[in-house]
Every structure is written in structure tokens, then in C-alpha cells.
Amino acid sequence: MATQWVLVVVAVMAVLFAGGAAGGQLSTRYYDGKCPNVQSIVRAGMAQAVAAEPRMGASILRMFFHDCFVNGCDASILLDDTANFTGEKNAGPNANSVRGYEVIDAIKTQVEASCNATVSCADILALAARDAVNLLGGPTWTMQLGRRDALTASQSAANGNLPGPGSDLATLVTMFGNKGLSPRDMTALSGAHTLGQARCATFRSRIFGDGNVDAAFAALRQQACPQSGGDSTLAPIDVQTPDAFDNAYYANLVKKQGLFHSDQELFNGGSQDALVRKYAGNAGMFAADFAKAMVRMGALLPAAGTPTEVRLNCRKVN
């Protein structure tokens, strides 16, 4: 397994230095002379958080996805509401599923103590998401850094840019494509659902209404998620290894045991079936593709000319 992760790093390095979507603004050596300890500080903070609660790794990874899909990876998701704007924290896709803000706050405090007014919240979140994956058994990759923090946030943008658990395959392909991410990227990134838990309200229609669902799996989930009530009851997204980053998610899809309708759409007689089968049988291929797709997603930046800064407090502008 260790050899596979070395190959992942080599593959991702090839993507990084090939240029392309990453853009000239980001660099793998951005903090070398300004805050050389930032990566070790973030790693230590995430190690502490995941040791206390393994689920927190999934939460931070989800936070990073939801940040990058709304106006780029700019830490806008971390901003509290103000008199001037209603932010992303209470948008439909985030209000009951994104958590771990206090973990980022704690890491930011440690980073500020070492390198004041130097490291953006957006870069801290990007590093924390990478380390969450690795600490739970997944690959690591060389992170491009140099992101800056948004001065505002948009609840409406969060409501409009994030795919939901009921999305069909065409919608998923379109929404990822709008971000410059290919169907292969989409299928690899969906493997983040190998971690974490979900609320009954997000998968009830799947276990009671979908035709493409394993009957025994549906019955198991129905025990804790009845047709009415219990909306906040949690279930693991990956029924096999919910706290380990591995390729079991894809094996679940082949067995019609995807928890969300949107998950099972990746294996439902469509264009991604063959790739799902490959990932189910080849953990190294999945890990390499996931890491490369994370680099590409992490390179999504705010539109040119957007005002940004390095926030001192991730919850509010300076």
C-alpha cells in the first residue's frame, strides 16, 4: 500500500508541473520563505481533531469541496453572516452537513502565532482537507498554495452551485463540468463519500423510493430512518468502512448500496459504470485519480480582479 501512495505523489507531481488548470498564481513553494512550518502546524491540528473524532476528517473534506464549488477556493464558506451579506454557512447544502469550523479556527490560531498575517484561511482549509484524507488511510499529494481569502460570501451562490443527494448523472456531469472538472474527476471526487455520515433526511427517498437499490441494504437503513421522523439520525455513507479512506465506496455502488441517489447514479447503466468497476477493483488507481482531481479542484480560484486578503480571523474580514 505504501508503494501505491508513492506512485500517487509522483503522478500528482507530474500534473502540478505540467501547468494547465493550476494557473500561475499558486505555487508548491509559496510559503517556503514566509512560513516554512505551516504544513506541519496544519497536520498536527488535523491529527488532533481526527484522533478525537474520526468523522471530523470527512467534515473538513466536505467543507473544502463546498468552499471550492462556490466562487473558487477562497474560504468564503468560513465567513459568518454580517449586516452586509448573508453567507454560505446556512445555505441548504451546508446548514446541516458542514461542520468543523472550530477545527479550522484552532489551526488558524496556531498558524498566526507562528507566522502572523501570512497564511490564508483558504490555504489552511486546503491543507487540512488533504491531511484529513491521509490521516484516515488515503493518499497525500503536493499542495499548491497561495490562495487568498474572500471579502464576502453568497448564500444564493452556495444554493445554486452545489449538487444535491438527489442529483441525476446528467446534472452531476454538468455541475462538475461548469467548474472545469471532467466526468472522471467527478467520479473520483465522489469517492470522498467513502468517509463520513449522513442525515436520514438526505437519503430517505433513496431507501424508500429508488428502484436501483439493494433490498437488504434499504431494509437496514430503514430501521433507523423511517418514512417519517428521525430526520437527523445519522448513517455511514460507506456501509463497510465509514472511517477509512479506501475504495469500498465503489464496491458498494456495484452492489447497489450507494446511500445517496446521486452516488448510485455513477453506477446505474450509464457512462461511469466502467470506471466505477475499475475503482472498485483497483485502490491504487482510485487514489491516484482522487489526488489529481483534488489538485485540479483546489486550483479553482475567484474570478480575476476579485478583491481578496489574508484574513486574521477566518470568520470575518479584517
From TrEMBL:
Cofactor mode of binding and number, as noted: Binds 1 heme b (iron(II)-protoporphyrin IX) group per subunit.
EC number of this enzyme: 1.11.1.7
Site feature Transition state stabilizer, where: R62
Residues that coordinate or bind Ca(2+) 1: D67, V70, G72, D74, S76, E88
Signal peptide location: 1-23
Residue ranges of every copy of the Plant heme peroxidase family profile domain listed in the record: 25-318
Annotated disulfide bonds: C35-C115, C68-C73, C121-C314, C200-C225
Gene Ontology BP, a term: response to oxidative stress
Compartments it resides in: Secreted
Residues of the active site: H66
GO MF annotations, alphabetized: heme binding; lactoperoxidase activity; metal ion binding
Role of this protein: Removal of H(2)O(2), oxidation of toxic reductants, biosynthesis and degradation of lignin, suberization, auxin catabolism, response to environmental stresses such as wounding, pathogen attack and oxidative stress.
Family under the similarity heading: Belongs to the peroxidase family. Classical plant (class III) peroxidase subfamily.
Descriptive protein name: Peroxidase
